[in-house]
Amino acid sequence: MSVPTELLRRNADAIFFDCDGVLLDSVHVKERQFRAMMQERIPQFADAAMDYYWRNGGTSRLAKFRWIWTNLVGKTLPETEIEALGREFQDRVFSGVVSCPMLPGAQEFLDAHAAGLPCFVISGTPDEELKRVIRTRGMDRYFREMRGSPKTKTEIGLELLERHHLTPSKTWFVGDATTDLEAARNLGVRFVGVAGPHLTPFAAGVPLINDIMELERLILSANDADLHSPAR
To answer: What's the topology of domain 5-25+102-227?
Structure first.
């Protein structure tokens, strides 16, 4: 049974959620299609491309394509080709992301607390696609704003903190990638990691959870010293 939202509000002004791997169990959907695109186009570099992909979870797919072709293939693709790769990737993953399950505890946490605790989505997915996915799934009712690339997560977070008058030390960022951890540190907000391949190997000292409902315990147990120190 969930705790009353007003108890969480003592230690939380808002929660920033990443989407893939935090709210939606969609990481494998995107990984499978990214690998397929690499195997079809640059099979000799596919393993190295996927290594970069895993080490840079949460980064814009366009940035990934750009880096892979520039640094592995040794060819600078025109932006029109980069954008075409992005559109193909979107087409290949959309139905899988719309139909995949949510992460354990995500639905329960949002049902219990989103009405009284401001929740936001900050994602590396292109902004229009992100909103289309969330609206198609009927999840938009939970969130005050849903924001994606091309702006970085730090840029989006700064805008949200200012516009919604949020206290950084009482704002929580839930992510599954090093880009989420970096953004939280840049913003000075609290960070909670969802255990997974994009984050766990690089997250020494970071609180990790396997079920989003575990957020309740972490928020309730935060003391005054925690709430006035920068994100770990």
So the answer is: Rossmann fold (3.40.50)
